Structures are given as structure tokens and as C-alpha cells.
Amino acid sequence: MFADRAKIFIRAGKGGDGHVSFRRELYVPNGGPDGGDGGRGGDVIFEVDEGLNTLYDYRHRTKFSAQNGEEGGKRRCHGKDGADIVLKVPPGTIIREAESGKVIADMSAKNSRQIILKGGKGGLGNMHFATATMQVPKYAQPGQPARELWVTLELKVIADVGLVGFPNVGKSTLLSRVTNARPKIANYHFTTLNPNLGVVDLPGSRGFVIADIPGLIEGASEGVGLGHEFLRHIERTKVIIHMVDAASTEGRDPVDDIYKINAELNAYNPDIAARPQVIAANKIDAIYDEDNDALERLRGEFEPKGIRVFPISAVSGQGLDGLLYHVREMLDGLDEAPVVFEQEYFPELAMEYEDLPYTVVKSEEEEHVYLVEGPKIEKMLGYTNLDSEKGFRFFQNFLKDTGILNELEEAGIQEGDTVRMYGLEFDYYK
Description:
The protein is α/β, with parallel strands linked by helices and 430 residues long. The protein is 21% helix and 21% strand.
């Protein structure tokens, strides 16, 4: 069964508590404290497994916990560290914080292993708290509590080229002919229920990965049919091949089909609809009507817009070489870097400062100046490198997510006013 989404609960291990004990040896009546430190809690780690292609393993089991660290022992014995838990996912999986939908990690490109939740630190044993005035400390530090989080897993297949079109236009036939993929082929709507991947090998040139994206019909961007289930898989592709039935064997108008599918892509994500496109006018070997001018209409409509039209037959192979080498040329003219979703949510930082206080006030001494202070702000600034683009983006999200921007607006801040935080100054703009 193909599964490309799942929601799971993850929990890192709690740090083991520090131990309270004292030396008890013969002839040592007043032994000092010797309570050991607690062990570190286990981490929750996500790791890419190239052999996986679905999230099926997370459909029936939804809770995953790392091991807690053990308590420290007598005689300065350190508690055992908790075991990490490693969750295997297919390449292309995006991990999001469930409530906000923000990206925690994109398990693709070079990111094959990432710690999502760190285990709690072990507490210090009472041997650390002896002083000249307190030689018999009867307390130890508890271990850090376990961090836990609901996350959603979403698989977006990794392919250079996305193959789109209405049902029965021949996408699966094309994929089976030009790659090593073996999709099921039959004359039924929505026969293809899985995004099928295949590698195109081109003699004398570099190959590329192509994905047959099923489920596109009118209303797909609104979740009609299977649209929403599969549109996400086209988000990483760099070039789109529109396949249409040039013979209109089912009475469809190929020009109209292109516009309808582009409308669905644009409604789902305008960035996808703006990517380079090429049209594969399929089933030309089934055109028996001399008055069928589908190819000329497609060329007249789309080639002036820079979209090439290639007449092909996925069954016989006619015209496929021209199409595939043109797609390779299109890819060569694009950025080779893979499409990676940037991190937006940082579990460690979010959990560190979530319960700390802060204040937002208008300065009484200076006009148009607002002060934002408190432990929450101080800790966040200590963690964040504002000189980096990633750090500054996190800082902006922090101000929005914590409600600080709303409080500044309620306090009367206007565009161009100054926000001051522990020696740092920023101009406010909406």
C-alpha cells in the first residue's frame, strides 16, 4: 500500500536524576558525598533509507519514544545513557511540526540523518554540591524532562521532471517505455494510484529522473478526486511534461486540457505552474481523421509562449528521442541544486524559551521607540546568529509566533518606529 503522509508522536528520553549518597566505608566515619550523575536521555533521530518509498510503517504505529537516562549511582557511578531511537524514512520526506505545519527537516539532498529531538541532560549528583560550608549536601539535580512533539511526515518524491495529464492520455505507457519503471497500465480512470518514478537513460547525454504524477482532474487543487493526494509530489520537479491525447480518443480537447491542468497547478502552487514546460502530444498513430488539426492548434497556441510541442506515440516510440533530448537541454539550462524545503521550526529553541516571560513597552524617554525585554528575548538572542539569513529568518518568525508583533501593534507602533532589544535596534515595517 502506498502511503505518503503520516502523523506521529515523538518523545526524546528524560535525563536521569542525579544521585544522593555518601561514602560508607570502614574507618571512614564521615565520608563525603559520592552520588553520581544521571545518564543522558536518548535522542529521536530521523534517517533516510534508500530502500523505502512509502511511509506505510507509520500508518499503524504512531508513538515513538527514545529511552530515558538512568539515575546516577553510589560511589560516583554515572547513570547509563538512554538509547537513541532511529526512525527510517524514504528520501524526500519532509518533517513538519503538526500544529503550525512549519518545516523541521527535509530529508533529501545531503541531509540523510538529523536529530529532531535531543534527549534531556542527566542531573548532577550530590558530589558536585559540596562546599566548605555545606559538606554534606542532601540534594542532587534532577534530569532534564523529556521533550515531546507531534509531527507530520510528508513524502514529496524526488524527480527532475514531472509528467502530468488527464487520465488515459498515456503517461504510464510513456514511463514504461523510456524508463525501467513498470507501472500498471489499463484503460480505467485513476488506474495509477502511486507516483511512479523512473530513470531515463540517454545515449551520449546525462539521464534524468521522471515521475508520473497521477490524479490530476479539474478541481484537483481543491482535493477533488485524488488531486491533493499527489500534487505535492510535483513540488520538487524542475521541468513539467504535459501529456495530451492528440487523437482525442475520449473526446477531450487537448488545448483545453493544457489550460485546465495549468489552472490546477497554479491554484495549488503558482511557483510550480511557472516552471518550464513542454507538451507531449501523444497517440499521433491513432489520428485517422484528416480534419484533426490538434497538433497545429497546440503549436499555434503554445509555441509562441515558448512551450515546445512534440508529436509522439508512447506505444510505438515515435518522436520520443526528440522529446527526451529536449527535456535534457531544458534541465541543463537550469540550476542543478535540488529543491530543498528550508527549516522553519527549531524544536530545541522553541521548547527552551516557550514558558519564559517577556515585556513589550513604549519608551517613556524617547519618542517612537519600543522596548522588548525579558528572559525569553535574552535567551533567544543568545541562541540566534542574526548575521546569517537563516538566523534572521528564525528571529522574524519568533517575533510573529510568540505574539510580540501583535503586542507591538497594540502598543501603537507605526512604520519606521524603532524596536530595541538588549542593545539591538530594528526599524519596524509591516
